[in-house]
C-alpha cells in the first residue's frame, strides 16, 4: 500500500518537474499570419494562406469532384468565372494543388477541335483550342489563340500571357481580311506571318512588335520579307520607322527606297522623313510635313533633294548631277474668313530634275514630259462695305527647254465691282442709258525674265520691269423692234511703265541695238464697238407617214463694228522710226518688249459678222414614248469673218468655220474647224514662204482640223442580262457573286468599255508645204471577273506609221488588298510596275510590294 502511494507521488513530481522545464524554454517567433486568441495572448492559431484571391464560380452539364486529388472536372457547356475572367469551353479541369485551370474546345470523332474555347477578360474576347491558366501567377498559355485587334486578327500557334499587358506569341499570322474576321471564310486571302510576336496592351492602346515577317497571299508565300514590324493599334497617331522597298535598277544599282521615320508633332502637324539609297552612289532625301487645322486651313510641304550618279567614275559614261524639288501647297477653309483668303501652290525644281528621275513615279505620271513648272501664291482681301476686291499674287514659272524663269513679284489687282451708271426710274431697267454698266480696276505688275542662276541677284533686279495698268469698260444693250438686241461698248486703257525702248542701227558693229531707258512714261488707248444680233427659225415639214417628219433650222446672225484710231501716228508719240541696215525707215514702239504691251498700230474700222447655225431633225421612233426622236445634224455651225474699212491693204480677214455634231444617240462626237484664206498666195519667188497678194476670191485652205470620239461599251450592244431571272442557282466564290446554269457553269456581267478617238490636223498658213498630223487612239477596259480588270491604251501615228504611247494594265481587287500591274513597252522610258497594297488603314503605307524595271531609254526590256 505504502509503496503504491509513494510510486504515484513520484510520478506526479516527475511530470511537474518536466512541465516546469518546458515552461522555461524560449518561445518561438509567431508567424505573421497567426491569429491572437482573445482570452490569452500566449495562445496562437496559425491560418494557412488561401490560394485563391476570389471565389471560383463554376457550372456545367456534368460536374465531378475528385477529393483525394483535389481536382474538379466540368463537361459540356462548362463555364468558370474568376475575378474579371470568364472561360467557356466543352471541357474544363481545375487542379487545386497546382492552381491550374485547363480548358479545351469541343472535339469531333477524330479529335479535331470544332468549337473553340472562349475566354473573356476585361471585355476582350479570345478564342483558343486549348487554354491553361494559373490562378496564382495569373499567367496563361493558349494554343491556336485567335485575338482581334483594331482592324485585324492574330492567330498564334502558341501564346503565353505574362500579365494583363504583355503577350508572347509563336508562329503567329496577322490579317485584316474582313471575311475571315467575320468567319465568312475559313482561310484568309492574305496574312503576315511572324515566328515571334510580342503584343503589348495598355488601357488606351496596344501594339505588336515582331521579328522577321513574311507576306502570304492565298496561302502562298511571297518574296516580301520585312526585318521587323511595329503595328500600333490606337486611334492616336504614333511615331515609328517606315519600312523601305528594295530592288535593282541598271543605271543606279541596288536600292532601298522610302526608308525613314514618321513623327506626329502636336495635334496639327506630322513629319515624315524618307531616304532613297543606291549602291552606285545616288541618294535622295525627302522630308514631308503635313498640317491641318479644322475649319481653318490645311497644307503640306515636301522636298526632294538628291544626287544622281550614273556610270563608273573614271569612264566616259560617268555623270553626277544634283537635283532638287521644293513643293508647298496651302488652302484655306472658306468658312475661316470670307473677307481674307490665302492660298499657295509652289513647285520649284532644278532644270534637269525630271531628266534624272530617282523616283519611277515621275515616269508613270508622265512628269518626265514636263517642259514647264508654275508656282503661285495668292492673297485676296474683300470688304464688307467697300465694293472692291484686292488680290496680291506672286508667281514663278520655269521653262526647262530654254532655262529661263519668269518671276512676277509682287502683282496686285484692284477690281471694282460692276455697277450701273444711272439709276432706274421705274425699277425695271430699260433703254441704253439705264443699262450702262461700268467695270474698272487697276493692275500693278513687277516682272522679270531671267536665267535661273540670276535669281535675286543684281542682274535680275536690273532686268526687272514695273507696270501699272487701268482699264475702264462701259457696256449697254437694249431691244430694238422686239427681235433685235443692240449692244454698245467702249474700252479705255491707261498704262504706266518705268522703262522704254530706244532702237537704232549701229553701222560699225552692223547690228540693231535696243537700248533701255529708265524713265516713267505711259500711254492711253480707247476703242468702241457696236453689235446687232437676232435669232431666226425655219421649219421644213414632210408628208404624213414619212420617216423624217420635220427639219428645224435655227440661225443666229450677228454684226459688229469696231473702231480704234491709229496709235502709231506721230501725234501720240507712242511710236518712233529708225533706219535699218538697208536704210529703210522702220517704225517701232517705245513700249515694245515692255510689261504693259504696246498700243495697236493702224486704224481699225472693222465690220465683223458671225452666223451661228443649229440644225435638228425629227424622225419616227418606236423606242421613244412620244413616237418621235430628235436627231442633231449640227449642234453648232459657225461662220465668222471681218472687213476692215480703214486698212490700206488686205481688208478681209481669214474666214473661219467651226462645227460640232454628234451621231448614234450622241455617242459619236465630231468637232471640226476650217480656216479659209480669201486672198491668193504667190509662190513665184521660189521660196517656201508665200506672199499674200491683193487678188480676192481664191479661198485656199490654210488650216483644217477634225476630232472624232466614239465610246463603246457592253451596254450599247445589248441590254443587261437579268441573271437572277435566267439562272436559278446563285453562289459566291471568294467574295465574287456568280449565277450557275444547269451544267454548273458560272455566269456574270463582263462589262467592257472601248473609247476610239481620231485626230487629223492640216496647217499651211503662208507655207508652200502643209504640216499634217494624224493619229488613232484606243483606250478601254474589260472585266474578266467581277474583280479582275484589264485596261490599256495605245495611239498609232498614221504619218510616221509608228505606235506612240502604249500602256497595258492588270488589276485585281481582293477583299483586303489590291494588285496592280502596268507596262509601258514603247517610248523613251520602257518600264513596268508591279504593286501589292493592303487596304486596311493600319497597313496601307507599311505593307507594300513594288518591283519596277530599268528606266533607261535604251535599257533592255
Automatic annotation (TrEMBL):
Q: Which residues form the LPS-assembly protein LptD central domain?
A: 208-679
Q: Which InterPro entries match?
A: LptD, LptD_2
The stretch of residues making up the signal peptide is none
Q: What is this protein called?
A: LPS-assembly protein LptD
Amino acid at each position: 500500500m505504502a509503496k503504491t502511494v509513494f510510486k504515484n507521488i513520484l510520478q506526479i513530481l516527475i511530470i511537474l518537474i518536466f512541465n516546469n522545464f518546458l515552461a522555461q524554454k524560449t518561445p518561438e517567433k509567431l508567424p505573421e499570419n497567426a491569429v491572437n486568441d482573445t482570452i490569452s495572448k500566449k495562445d496562437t492559431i496559425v491560418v494557412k494562406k488561401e490560394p485563391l484571391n476570389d471565389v471560383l464560380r463554376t457550372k456545367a452539364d456534368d460536374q465531378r469532384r475528385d477529393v483525394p486529388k483535389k481536382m474538379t472536372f466540368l463537361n459540356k457547356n462548362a463555364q468558370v468565372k474568376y475575378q474579371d475572367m470568364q472561360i467557356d469551353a466543352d471541357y474544363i479541369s481545375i487542379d487545386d494543388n497546382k492552381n491550374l485551370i485547363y480548358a479545351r474546345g469541343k472535339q469531333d470523332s477524330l479529335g479535331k477541335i470544332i468549337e473553340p474555347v472562349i475566354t473573356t477578360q476585361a471585355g476582350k474576347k479570345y478564342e483558343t483550342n486549348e487554354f491553361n491558366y494559373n490562378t496564382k501567377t495569373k499567367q496563361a498559355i493558349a494554343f491556336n489563340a485567335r485575338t482581334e485587334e483594331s482592324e485585324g486578327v492574330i492567330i498564334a500557334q502558341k501564346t503565353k500571357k505574362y500579365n494583363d499587358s504583355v503577350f508572347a506569341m509563336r508562329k503567329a499570322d496577322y490579317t485584316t481580311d474582313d471575311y475571315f474576321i467575320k468567319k465568312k471564310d475559313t482561310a484568309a486571302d492574305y496574312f503576315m506571318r511572324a515566328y515571334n510576336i510580342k503584343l503589348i496592351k495598355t488601357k488606351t492602346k496596344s501594339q505588336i512588335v515582331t521579328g522577321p515577317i513574311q507576306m502570304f497571299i492565298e496561302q502562298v508565300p511571297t518574296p516580301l520579307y520585312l526585318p521587323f514590324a511595329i503595328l500600333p493599334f490606337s486611334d492616336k497617331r504614333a511615331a515609328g520607322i517606315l519600312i523601305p522597298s528594295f530592288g535593282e535598277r541598271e543605271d543606279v544599282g541596288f536600292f532601298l527606297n522610302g526608308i525613314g521615320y514618321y513623327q506626329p508633332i502636336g495635334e496639327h502637324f506630322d513629319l515624315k522623313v524618307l531616304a532613297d539609297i543606291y549602291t552606285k552612289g545616288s541618294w535622295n532625301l525627302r522630308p514631308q510635313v503635313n498640317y491641318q487645322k479644322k475649319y481653318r486651313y490645311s497644307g503640306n510641304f515636301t522636298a526632294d533633294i538628291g544626287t544622281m550618279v550614273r556610270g563608273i567614275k573614271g569612264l566616259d559614261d560617268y555623270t553626277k548631277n544634283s537635283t532638287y524639288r521644293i513643293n508647298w501647297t496651302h488652302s484655306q477653309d472658306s468658312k475661316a474668313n470670307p473677307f481674307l483668303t490665302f492660298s499657295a501652290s509652289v513647285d520649284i525644281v532644278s532644270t534637269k530634275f525630271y531628266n534624272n528621275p530617282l523616283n519611277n513615279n515621275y515616269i508613270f505620271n508622265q512628269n518626265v514630259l514636263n517642259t514647264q513648272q508654275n508656282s503661285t501664291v495668292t492673297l485676296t482681301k474683300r470688304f464688307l462695305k467697300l465694293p472692291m476686291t484686292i488680290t496680291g499674287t506672286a508667281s514663278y514659272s520655269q521653262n526647262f527647254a530654254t532655262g529661263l524663269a519668269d518671276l512676277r513679284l509682287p502683282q496686285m489687282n484692284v477690281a471694282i465691282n460692276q455697277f450701273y451708271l444711272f439709276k432706274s426710274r421705274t425699277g425695271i431697267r430699260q433703254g441704253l442709258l439705264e443699262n450702262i454698266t461700268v467695270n474698272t480696276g487697276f493692275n500693278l505688275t513687277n516682272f522679270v525674265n531671267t536665267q535661273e542662276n540670276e535669281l535675286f541677284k543684281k542682274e535680275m533686279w536690273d532686268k526687272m520691269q514695273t507696270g501699272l495698268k487701268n482699264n475702264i469698260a462701259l457696256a449697254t444693250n437694249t431691244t430694238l423692234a422686239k427681235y433685235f438686241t443692240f449692244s454698245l461698248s467702249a474700252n479705255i486703257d491707261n498704262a504706266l511703265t518705268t522703262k522704254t525702248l530706244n532702237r537704232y542701227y549701229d553701222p560699225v558693229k552692223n547690228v540693231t541695238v535696243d537700248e533701255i531707258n529708265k524713265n516713267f512714261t505711259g500711254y492711253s488707248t480707247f476703242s468702241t464697238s457696236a453689235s446687232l444680233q437676232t435669232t431666226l427659225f425655219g421649219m421644213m415639214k414632210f408628208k404624213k407617214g414619212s420617216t423624217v417628219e420635220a427639219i428645224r433650222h435655227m440661225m443666229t446672225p450677228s454684226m459688229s463694228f469696231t473702231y480704234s484710231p491709229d496709235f502709231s501716228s506721230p501725234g501720240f508719240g507712242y511710236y518712233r522710226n529708225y533706219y535699218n541696215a538697208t536704210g529703210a525707215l522702220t517704225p517701232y514702239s517705245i513700249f515694245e518688249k515692255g510689261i504693259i504691251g504696246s498700243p495697236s498700230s493702224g486704224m481699225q474700222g472693222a465690220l465683223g459678222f458671225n452666223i451661228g447655225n443649229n440644225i435638228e431633225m425629227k424622225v419616227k421612233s418606236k423606242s421613244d414614248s412620244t413616237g418621235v426622236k430628235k436627231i442633231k445634224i449640227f449642234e453648232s455651225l459657225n461662220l465668222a469673218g471681218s472687213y476692215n474699212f480703214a486698212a490700206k491693204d488686205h481688208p478681209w480677214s481669214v474666214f473661219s468655220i467651226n462645227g460640232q455634231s454628234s451621231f448614234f444617240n450622241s455617242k459619236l462626237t465630231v468637232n471640226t474647224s476650217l480656216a479659209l484664206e480669201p486672198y491668193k498666195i504667190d509662190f513665184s519667188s521660189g521660196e517656201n514662204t508665200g506672199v499674200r497678194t491683193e487678188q480676192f476670191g481664191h479661198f485656199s485652205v490654210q488650216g483644217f482640223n477634225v476630232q472624232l470620239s466614239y465610246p463603246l461599251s457592253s451596254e450599247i450592244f445589248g441590254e443587261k442580262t437579268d441573271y437572277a431571272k435566267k439562272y436559278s442557282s446563285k453562289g459566291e466564290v471568294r467574295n465574287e457573286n456568280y449565277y450557275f446554269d444547269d451544267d454548273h457553269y458560272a455566269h456574270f456581267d463582263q462589262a467592257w468599255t472601248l473609247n476610239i478617238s481620231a485626230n487629223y490636223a492640216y496647217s499651211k498658213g503662208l507655207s508652200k508645204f502643209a504640216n499634217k498630223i494624224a493619229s488613232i487612239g484606243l483606250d478601254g477596259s474589260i472585266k474578266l471577273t467581277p474583280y479582275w480588270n484589264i485596261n490599256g491604251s495605245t495611239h498609232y501615228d498614221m504619218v510616221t506609221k509608228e505606235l506612240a504611247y502604249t500602256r497595258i494594265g492588270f488589276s485585281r481587287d481582293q477583299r483586303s488588298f489590291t494588285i496592280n500591274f502596268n507596262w509601258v513597252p514603247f517610248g523613251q522610258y520602257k518600264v513596268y510596275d508591279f504593286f501589292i497594297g493592303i487596304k486596311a488603314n493600319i497597313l496601307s503605307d507599311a505593307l507594300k510590294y513594288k518591283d519596277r524595271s530599268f528606266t533607261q531609254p535604251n535599257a533592255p526590256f
